[in-house]
């Protein structure tokens, strides 16, 4: 027999806090426990003592001092390290959160605060009907991006309450698993094939009735009009350091929201973090395409990405077209006939598209002799004192290299110079109106980047050479099956830029009330008068006026992807051995070291040449090894180094996706590549 005094020596008091809404019931409950009591047993004892009849299944213990959840209910208190001074809060795992979407709409929904952010984002995307959740993440707005807004608020009254879309009654919000039909390849198309508007019938697959239909409509349709005053109040980065602030607040995907000090009813931004949009399908991706379009639109309006005047007008024309199209479609949308498509029929049509348009001729194209390009081009080499030497040579493009000769006759001999384009930066230098078709090549050399400009004579020549340069920079040749599509994509973008003025443009009734200030960034609003902008947007509009609503969005995304800065996320870093700060640009396939003062690229490192990367967590330093004994190390000054570490691992993870197993994500592999060992 064990005496009561001996038994008492093994027990100790633990004060637990219960997060409940019942009035008149104590929130702090003392319990006598032993170290070998498991967490599940502690929950049971606590619930029995509270004596409140309710569903406790979503509750778990949150350890406030250590900022961690006790989710392994079979672990004992000793194994968890819980002692008498531990402050444990018994609280719900799913809590309300406000999310600002790329289209600037705010949704309020219930999210798991105990799951890793990667899993939480996956659940959110299922609820919002966005496929490929691995491309998105949650972002906290950093202090620097809010300063401008706070200054404005001091002299103005509080704005009207924001219209918030409440989705808290959704199955995912309640902590229940989403309907598997949501990601089914054979589901009903979510675009009406005639009008291009979202088909409401789809929503009945995974939601209930009219509220869900309305939610889908709001998330899948664009509302582009925004006042110049609204634009002026929003944060607009002026320098690379300002752009770096935009990427400082990404949450750690390997930790939960509670572990990262996110509280109930906080507002976070849901954004596309990784710029590799896999398997974009207009048939199933109404919301996804619209949200990518919106993220692109705001990035251009707020000058988070640079574009030329000509490109800005194209973007403005596509947006202006959206407005007129939406005003017409909103009237006819209610009377649109809902077509219920049979599952099997949808599956067969999808298979047909795959067989017909998928990988046709790929094998034959890739095994034939590698083609070459040969043309007279102008070579422009920047000289000191701002003078440029321009001379015509005979250029030959073979494999991934460009050689140039004095003339065509001497092409059989040794070239004047041979340029290896593998790993280089390719930047378009085009002004269609001025008939300027240039290609800027930044070729990596031992001490930095060698700058070379090529000038083409016409659009067709430019498209062929530009496509070859883009592929060569990635280590691919013109025999690759993606060469011809790349040529067509470039020609298509040039065609949009080619403003063939139509005399009837200004008199189109649908554009009479256009407010051009809503479609261009503030820089161009200051540069041109309103009438001038309207006329120029209408000129550019002639080239896109025949597109459907969906096509206009996809063309906008495609044009955004064609910009030189597309997909670059910036961070201020200090390289090992350097005495000054630099900017590091992280893209889907490379890292770029950029001079902070001038904005010029210094060096590029491709992920394909990377052997390994790791982080020294003690000094917060990222170290990367590449082929040919190249190694770099840097500390991140504008954000936590874990963010860059996760970016690199995330892009490598996304490169492993394929359509064979595209609906199942290897979450374990993602965390292995991005988690790190702190």
Description of the molecule:
This protein has 678 residues and is of the alpha+beta class. Among the domains are: 11-92, Roll (Ubiquitin-like (UB roll)), CATH 3.10.20.90; 371-478, Pleckstrin-homology domain (PH domain)/Phosphotyrosine-binding domain (PTB) (PH-domain like); 569-675, Roll (PH-domain like). 31% of the residues lie in helices and 23% in strands. A seven-stranded antiparallel β-sheet has the order 14-13-12-11-17-16-15, with helices on one face. Strands 21-20-19-18-24-23-22 form a seven-stranded antiparallel β-sheet. The protein has a five-stranded mixed β-sheet with strand order 2-1-5-3-4, covered by helices on one side. Helix 18 runs antiparallel to helix 19.
Question: Which key terms come to mind for this protein?
Answer:
single chain, 678 residues, Ubiquitin-like (UB roll), PH-domain like, 7-stranded antiparallel β-sheet, 19 helices, globular, PH_Kindlin/fermitin, cell projection, cell junction
């Amino acid at each position: 027999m064990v005496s009561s005094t001996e038994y008492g020596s093994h027990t100790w008091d633990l004060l637990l806090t219960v997060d409940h809404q019942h009035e008149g019931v104590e929130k702090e409950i003392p319990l006598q426990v032993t170290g070998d009591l498991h967490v599940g047993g502690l929950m049971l004892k606590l619930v029995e003592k509270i004596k409140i009849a309710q569903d406790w299944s979503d509750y778990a213990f949150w350890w406030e001092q250590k900022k961690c959840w006790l989710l392994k209910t079979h672990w004992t208190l000793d194994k968890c390290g819980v002692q008498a001074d531990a402050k444990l809060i018994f609280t719900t795992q799913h809590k309300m959160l406000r999310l600002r979407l790329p289209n600037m709409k705010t949704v309020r929904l219930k999210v798991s605060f105990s799951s890793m952010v990667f899993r939480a984002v996956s659940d959110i995307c299922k609820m919002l009907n966005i496929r490929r959740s691995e491309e998105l993440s949650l972002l906290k707005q950093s202090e620097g991006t809010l300063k401008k807004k706070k200054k404005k608020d001091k002299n103005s009254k509080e704005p009207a309450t924001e219209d918030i879309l409440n989705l808290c009654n959704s199955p995912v919000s309640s902590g229940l698993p989403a309907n598997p039909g949501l990601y089914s390849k054979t589901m009903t198309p979510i675009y009406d094939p005639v009008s291009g508007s979202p088909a409401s019938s789809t929503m009945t697959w995974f939601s209930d009735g009219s509220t869900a239909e309305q939610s889908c409509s709001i998330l899948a349709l664009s509302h582009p009009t925004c006042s110049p005053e609204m634009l002026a109040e929003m944060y607009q980065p002026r320098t690379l350091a300002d752009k770096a602030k935009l990427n400082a607040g990404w949450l750690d995907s390997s930790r939960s929201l509670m572990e990262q000090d996110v509280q109930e009813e906080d507002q976070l931004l849901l954004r596309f973090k990784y710029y590799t949009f896999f398997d974009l399908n207009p048939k199933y991706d109404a919301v996804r395409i619209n949200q990518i379009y919106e993220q692109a639109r705001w990035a251009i309006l707020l000058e988070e990405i640079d574009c030329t005047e000509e490109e800005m007008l194209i973007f403005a024309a596509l947006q202006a077209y959206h407005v007129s199209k939406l005003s017409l479609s909103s009237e006819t949308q209610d009377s649109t006939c809902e077509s219920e498509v049979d599952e099997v029929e949808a599956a067969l049509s999808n298979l047909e598209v795959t067989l017909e348009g998928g990988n046709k001729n790929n094998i034959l194209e890739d095994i034939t002799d590698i083609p070459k390009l040969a043309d007279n081009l102008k070579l422009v080499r920047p000289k000191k004192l701002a003078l440029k030497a321009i001379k015509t040579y005979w250029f030959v493009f073979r494999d991934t290299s460009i050689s140039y000769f004095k003339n065509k006759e001497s092409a059989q001999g040794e070239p004047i110079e041979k340029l290896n384009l593998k790993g280089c930066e390719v930047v378009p230098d085009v002004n269609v109106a001025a008939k300027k078709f240039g290609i800027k090549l930044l070729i990596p050399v031992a001490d930095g980047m060698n700058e070379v400009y090529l000038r083409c004579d016409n659009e067709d020549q430019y498209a062929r050479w530009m496509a070859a340069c883009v592929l060569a920079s990635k280590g691919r040749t013109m025999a690759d099956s993606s060469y011809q599509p790349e040529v067509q994509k470039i020609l298509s973008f040039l065609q949009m830029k080619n403003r063939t003025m139509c005399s009837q443009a200004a008199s189109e009734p649908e554009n009479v009330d256009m407010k051009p200030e809503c479609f261009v960034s503030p820089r161009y609003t200051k540069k041109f008068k309103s009438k001038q902008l309207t006329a120029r947007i209408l000129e550019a509009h002639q080239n896109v006026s025949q597109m459907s609503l969906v096509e206009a969005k996809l063309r906008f995304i495609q044009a955004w992807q064609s910009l030189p800065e597309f997909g670059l996320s910036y961070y201020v870093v200090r390289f090992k051995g350097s005495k000054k700060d630099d900017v590091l640009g992280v893209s889907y396939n490379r890292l770029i070291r950029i001079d902070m003062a001038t904005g010029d690229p210094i060096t590029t490192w491709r992920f394909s040449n990377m052997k390994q990367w790791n982080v020294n967590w003690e000094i917060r330093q990222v170290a990367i090894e590449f082929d040919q004994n190249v190694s770099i190390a840097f500390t991140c000054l504008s954000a936590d180094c874990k963010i860059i570490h996760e970016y690199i691992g995330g892009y490598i993870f996304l490169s492993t996706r394929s359509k064979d197993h595209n609906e199942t994500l290897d979450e374990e592999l993602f965390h292995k590549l991005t988690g790190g060992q702190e």
